[in-house]
Design goal:
316 residues, Arc Repressor Mutant, subunit A, D-Maltodextrin-Binding Protein, domain 2, five-stranded mixed β-sheet, 12 helices, 12 strands, 43% helix
């Protein structure tokens, strides 16, 4: 089939398709695209006619993609991402006048320590900028970065494939938190006292070892975990009013000690530091706005600006 005989279709329809697929709602897609709902419905009707498929079907109060819609979603998202990247490469990013939306994936444990300072730094230069912080889904993280659903992500080290760039932005040693009146707070914390106490652990998983548990098991040691929860603030409030101990990153402990009465002690045995990586898709490397965002994240965490030279060295 030559170009003149190929079926023609308005490429703007695919922007509507992507928005509906991501939002699961015509109403939310219309809001995101700044269109009326009838306009979105009309665009969807044209796509349904083109593909001879409903593409989305009603399931309760939401709509769900058909198998065909699932099949084309990644290709549509990547094609739109490529078009956006080409436009961004041709231009420049003006923070002062930008109304751009950046979506940052990060664990909840990072949000309360990093996000307030990051937003303050970003809005100092870009007062109209929009920032959305969303929960990390590790199984879909690479796909969300490549599709453009995430501008960048902050998370523990993990393999995400050759299309994802990464840079370490934080390395935080682990300390032990307890209430100031705890018997173990009166002297230097020893191994026997630490392991003999009962512990709180913070994890988004319902089971499995934490970073410190892995280090302990390698030494043939263990501890009693009395409570497992998802949030460091909740864990520290519990520790502040009980004899439970909590091992956590030092920056988290120092931050939470501003509001809660906590005694922080060095761990009695060497523990691996918590590392946080910044991830972004290779297609965003030439995006001036994404680069500006990465530089702010790097500077805020103490790693400095993320430059192209550093990236070439890291990939060498």
């Amino acid at each position: 089939m030559n170009e003149s005989s190929a079926p023609r279709i308005d490429l703007n329809l695919f922007r509507v398709f992507e928005a509906i697929y991501r939002a699961g709602s015509l109403t939310r897609a219309a809001e995101e695209l700044h269109l009326t709902q009838p306009a979105v419905s009309n665009a969807l009707a044209r796509l349904r006619s083109h593909y001879d498929d409903p593409l989305f079907v009603r399931e309760g109060r939401k709509i769900a993609p058909t198998p065909l819609a699932h099949g084309i979603a990644d290709e549509v998202a990547q094609a739109l991402r490529t078009l956006r990247d080409s436009v961004q490469r041709a231009g420049h990013f003006d923070p002062a006048g930008s109304t751009r939306r950046f979506v940052i994936g990060m664990p909840e444990s990072l949000e309360f320590t990093l996000l307030p300072r990051l937003v303050q730094a970003l809005h100092a230069q870009a007062p109209q900028l929009r920032v959305h912080s969303v929960r990390i889904d590790r199984e879909r993280l690479a796909r969300q970065l490549v599709s453009g659903d995430l501008s960048l992500a902050l998370d523990v080290p993990q393999p995400l494939g050759p299309r994802i760039r990464q840079q370490r932005v934080l390395k935080d040693r682990l300390v032990v938190a307890m209430r100031p009146g705890h018997p173990l707070a009166k002297t230097t914390l020893g191994t026997a006292g630490w392991l003999g106490a009962r512990h709180v652990v913070v994890s988004g998983r319902s089971s499995g070892p934490t970073l410190e548990d892995v280090a302990l098991s390698r030494r043939g040691l263990g501890r009693e975990v009395a409570l497992r929860c998802q949030n460091y603030y909740a864990a520290c409030r519990i520790v502040a009013h009980s004899d439970l101990l909590l091992t956590l990153p030092q920056s988290h402990g120092e931050w939470l000690s501003r509001d809660l009465k906590l005694h922080l002690a060095d761990a009695p045995i060497p523990l691996p530091a918590l590392e946080i990586m910044m991830y972004w898709p290779e297609g965003a490397e030439a995006d001036a706005g994404n680069r500006w965002l990465r530089e702010h994240v790097g500077a805020l965490s103490g790693s400095g600006a993320i430059t192209a030279a550093k990236q070439k060295k890291a990939r060498a």
